[in-house]
Design a protein that fits this description.
The structure is a single chain. The chain is 64% helix and 9% strand. It has seven helices and three strands. A hairpin with a 7-residue loop joins strand 2 and strand 3. Helix 3 crosses helix 4.
Length: 132
């Protein structure tokens, strides 16, 4: 547990510095990273980021003002607002990832087999499998 805590601290610090270099808070950067996987409803985004819906609204408002995301009404329910990453948002997200030098340097010390093993183990521990 301690080593996992240390690794997450290093990753989070690296991510925070990289996000700040793009004039974003860590929370704004995290929202962009989540949206890089695909559009998300505001409620789902708040749940994924484990934050209050009103806080999520403020984060998205600021990202939208910068042209990094846009909102669209849901196709099946117009009350649902989906958040979509814009091309500029994709560019900024990629720039943040590219600037995470400490994380990249650490992963570069692993060979391909070790990286694959690490991915498999992290997936097994943190990605829920299908319900039985």
């Amino acid at each position: 547990m301690e080593l996992l805590s240390v690794s997450l601290g290093v990753y989070y610090g690296d991510f925070t510095v990289a996000a700040a270099s793009e004039n974003l808070t860590a929370s704004q950067g995290k929202a962009l990273t989540v949206l890089r996987r695909g559009p998300a409803a505001m409620r789902a985004l708040a749940e994924t980021m484990t934050c209050d819906a009103s806080n999520m609204t403020g984060i998205i408002d600021r990202l939208e003002k910068r042209g990094l995301v846009r909102r669209e009404a849901g196709a099946s329910d117009r009350r649902v607002k989906n958040v979509i990453l814009t091309p500029e948002g994709e560019r900024v997200t990629d720039a943040i990832r590219a600037k995470m030098h400490t994380t990249h340097d650490g992963l570069a010390r692993l060979d391909d087999t070790d990286r694959d093993t690490l991915y498999t183990l992290l997936e097994r521990v943190f990605v829920p499998g299908p319900a039985a």
